[in-house]
Amino acid sequence: MSTAVPTLHPDGERTRLDRWRDALLGDPRRLRLWGWLAPAIVTIVAAVLRLFDVGTPHALVFDETYYVKDSWSQWVLGYPSTWPENADASFTTGDTDIFTGVGSYVVHPPLGRILIGAGMALLGPDSATGWRLSAALFGTATVLLVYVIAHHLTRSIPFATVASGLIAIDGVSIVLSRTALLDVFLTFFVVLTFWFALLDHKRTGDRLDAAMDELPGPNTWGPLLWDRPWLLAAGAAAGAATAVKWSGLYLIAAIGIYVVVTDALARRRVGIVQWPMDAVRQGLISFVLIVPVSIVVYLTSWSGWLFTTGGYMRGSEGMGTGLLAFLPVPLQNLWAYHQSMYGFHVGLVTPHSYASPAWQWPLLIRPTSMYWHQDDFGVNGCALPNGCTEAIASNANPLIWWAGIAASVYLLVRFVMVRDWRFALVLTGLACTYLPWLLYPERTIFQFYTVAMVPFLVLALAFALQDVGRGVGGLSRATGQVIVAVFLVVCVAISAFWYPVWAGLPVSYEFWRLHNWLPSWI
Q1: What is the pTM of this model?
Q2: Which of 68, 295, 309, 354 has the most neighbouring CB atoms within 10 Å?
Q3: Mean per-residue pLDDT over the chain, rounded
Q4: Any bridge partners for residue 373, and if so which?
Q5: What CA–CA distance (Å, rounded) separates 477 from 15?
Q6: What is the separation of C-alpha 428 from the centre of its chain, rounded to a whole number of angstroms?
Q7: Are 79 and 312 in contact (CB under 8 A)?
Q8: Which of 136, 175, 126 is nearest to 371 (CA)?
Q9: DSSP secondary-structure letter at 222?
């Protein structure tokens, strides 16, 4: 890790922020200390915001009504079970084992429910903290992963702290980390996949350079690299993402394309004559390294369904036809189940008051209200004279969100101009978490799906802020640094203002109304 180098104005004078930075990071020992302290502090802040009173409200909010009960029956039986009519009230009062044992039709793979069930097994299924513990931990771990990725991209502690700090205080990331839904687990595995891809990029580039140094030139063909453990790890992580939600399939495709393109450019860089075809050869190897392990991880998540007989469509007779009839009966039935799930997803057009098509997401038009409850003074401990309002609104921090969208456009322009592979990594993450949803304008989808975009938005925003702090666009360096500092302070202030309605804390009705900045947010 290199020491910080003082940066000068064109007139030779350092800014006050430069001097502060040098005081904190200029000495190698202090630099090493901050290399541990910075991620630790950001992660602790993220953990506090996600774990504080996470068991409130003690109610099944939004789609927890499905995922919590399904997760618990799956943990106990190995597969999700149906529940009696009006089971929510009984479940929340502690009667948690009233599932019928009959397989329930669920339309998402099992891994997210397994993880939710693990928290319930640890703290008890009658504990709302238990329902949400795993989500909070995975949401916190995602913040740390963003720090690690940002630091690997730039070797800059301030840059990594800004990127991870912004997601630590972002609203949609906090809300989805405090709610027992699937999307925070998907987000974690998406980010983990890109971290592994980043490690593979660095390792493979070094190995390619070393291999080419040993070959006499000119070289028509380059070496074929099979020893790529981080690519295997990326495939496994992408398989885990798909085992949470099928949108992980877009991640597998995106990582495959990213790896092939970056391998092609690396081979052109080292002077391989037939670099396009050479990249195709290496691309076939990359396919073998990524896809089979993804399939294995995905199928492993179905173990409970496969090795029991009570799951939905887990009949005793095979349901396969043609070549599928030669598969073992459980796999035939699993294929038939997946066909049914696919039909459900492509035909999901049920009206919902909080549905938001993907074209609306960049504008933050219709965030999802997860929970809203009102008590009079003295009821349920309400100490406010005009009554208490408890709300969970999955709004992103508006400033972080809109600035992140602008920064993504800026990063795209910068990539076109300078072809920086780091920008390509961030843009690939944004593309695979957003663009596929534009293909389904009629489908019932929600703004909170954007939680998977936020890690890449804050990385793009950190790149943009880094440029502003350097004084791009005619700004002086001092002015740029002041702008960045003010921006970050305002982001923190907005998150502090919003946190009570992200965490479902009791507030006055008037205070809650102050958060409805757009009519469509109510």
Answers
A1: 0.92
A2: 68
A3: 90
A4: 390
A5: 7
A6: 14
A7: yes
A8: 175
A9: -
